[in-house]
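This is your field. Please look over both lines of this record.
***
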Amino acid sequence: MKAIKPISLLFLLLFIACSTNENDSNLSADINAKDIAEYVNFLAADELNGREAGTADEAKAANYISDLFRDFGLEPAGDDQTFFQEYTINTTILNNPHSTDTTGKKRLSKNVVGLLQGTADSEEMIIIGAHYDHLGYGEFGSLYSGDVPRIHNGADDNASGTAGLIELAQYLGKNRPSTDILFLAFSGEEMGLLGSAHFVEEPTVDLDNAIAMINMDMIGRMDNEKLIIFGTGTSAVWEDILLDANTDSLDLDLVEDGTGASDHTSFYYQSIPVLHYFTDTHSDYHRPSDDVEYINYEGIAKTISHIVRVIDYLDDVDKEQLAFIEAPGEQRQSMRLEGPTLGVLPDYGYDGKGLKITGTNPGQPAANAGLEGGDIIIELGGVELEDIYSYMGVLNTLEKGQRTTISILRDGEVLTFKMQL
């Protein structure tokens, strides 16, 4: 078993190495905002029409990612010695999740899979992932209410995370760790974590060798140095690792949940310790306005640098030292919303009772009823809410246009409003 070495000593040794080795003199500069901006701007360009899963535009994005993986020294780890793992999407079931029709319209989608061989003779691996698909023109999952279809470029969701994945491949390709790194660019996330679910059901590698899975989704809107990291409850040592790796003095919000509305969920249910990096939601979420001019590229670079330091630590542990544990509280296989929406922006870092919101969308039910950022929704339709999961569960029982009530906690006072969905 490998010995765990203190993070502070590791950083000191890295500093000395960077100061004395001419080839390593620019390691920190290898992660830079300019490269990240180039990747985001390609993926979120109008020419890719929103990268909807199973379209020719998704294929263009997949080819772009695979070409870069190859350039950075990754080996194909998909099907038949390629960078791609293909699977079929049934759009009939997507439009009606309760349908059992297997003869509906089919689409071919693909994950992009690349393996970076480590320098040591070990079969253990660290998995790093991000989804590269988005909403196209908004047929599935859009919160846009306009009459004319518009491109949803998904600059934050999730060109930002995909750019982080590519930049990590570039950096680690030059600075190989001893442990193998599996890079996964998922598609079909916006349609219900389809790509990651397919991968864990039919993996192209032995998942028993996975030490951990690190996911990046919506890491492009860092504000006031705040970074939310989910999954800290999936291993007893995660919190210590994440805090020790925080040499940039980021405002870390550590959340124990091992599941959520992104691809780390699929790996949590394979009993693999997970981390999910996220810089919070915003009013452009799942709307055409999620575009490149709002991206904080320096913030993405800081997020990636934190992940590099976590990988440096994981490079010196084995599976037994990073044992999986079930995250406390209720975990959900999916956070798919099939009912109406209130138009609220959840505070994903809140761990109290109810659902705290950071804002509301103009013209939507919550704003029309009088809700404000900072409110904590404690009851909806007469049902008391425990957390975001119970909130979504209640919404899935309601119908658009229905009249109901909503109770919130604001400045210590309980307020109840009438609302039309």
Summary: The chain is about 30% helix and 20% strand. The domain at 344-420 is CATH 2.30.42.10 (Pdz3 Domain). The two ends are 57 Å apart (CA to CA).
